[in-house]
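Marked as duplicate of an earlier ticket. Keeping the data here for the record.
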Amino acid sequence: MIRTITTLVIAMLFTTAMAQQPLKNTAFKDGEQLEYKLYFNWKFIWLTAGTAKMSIKAATYQGKPAYCCALTTETSKKIDRYFRMRDTLLCYTTRDLVPLYYRKGANEGKRYYVDELLYSYNNGCTVTMRELTSKGERKEKKQSSKNNIYDMLSIFLRARNFSTAGWKEGHTILFPIADGNGIMTARLRYLGKETVKSESGKKYDCLKLAYIETKKGKEKEIVRFFVSDDKQHIPVRLDLFLNFGIAKAFLK
């Protein structure tokens, strides 16, 4: 469950494919920190599932100005008894939000695996995908595209800076997402607006968006985002539709 939350707490905001272009950041500032409380519905009972924390800071990557984004998720002691989860994700982008590096280290139950991406640019984007499997196998492959390739954290940073002006319900954007195993095409669909409460009880006017994957020719909504209807586009609440229940994440 928390693996899905880890992956999708960041799969956020975008009928077109996006070009690999610089994008001016107006949504977040150096030092921003977001924290979420996670709940899981188990037989009509909502259990505290854990926490997720994200930070964004100015940094350097290979001697050049960059942003560094980090996300950690941790299951609660109650959930640890059934399935322990400790995930750490890290990415670097240029200051205009072009992906440079991504790493995910996942400790899930008795499994540990690592995904790593290294980006290079020359008449398009080439991504080197490295994987340390839960069986201890090391794999590496490359894939190139004339268009952009993203990871879950870099698309989150870019997405927060997209303008939603003129969007109508049903508006959909496609974007390629890479991990250590390969690249898939995901989509985000705009579902309108709604007022929601954070963990503290504060009310936010939000945009409602669905993150969708296609498997065997059928669309499946994986997570529904409620993001603040302002320039920051902060995720206030996430509803996750899992194979064995529903999970929710609330901004603290």
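See parent ticket for discussion. Confidence is low (pLDDT under 50) at residues 1-19.
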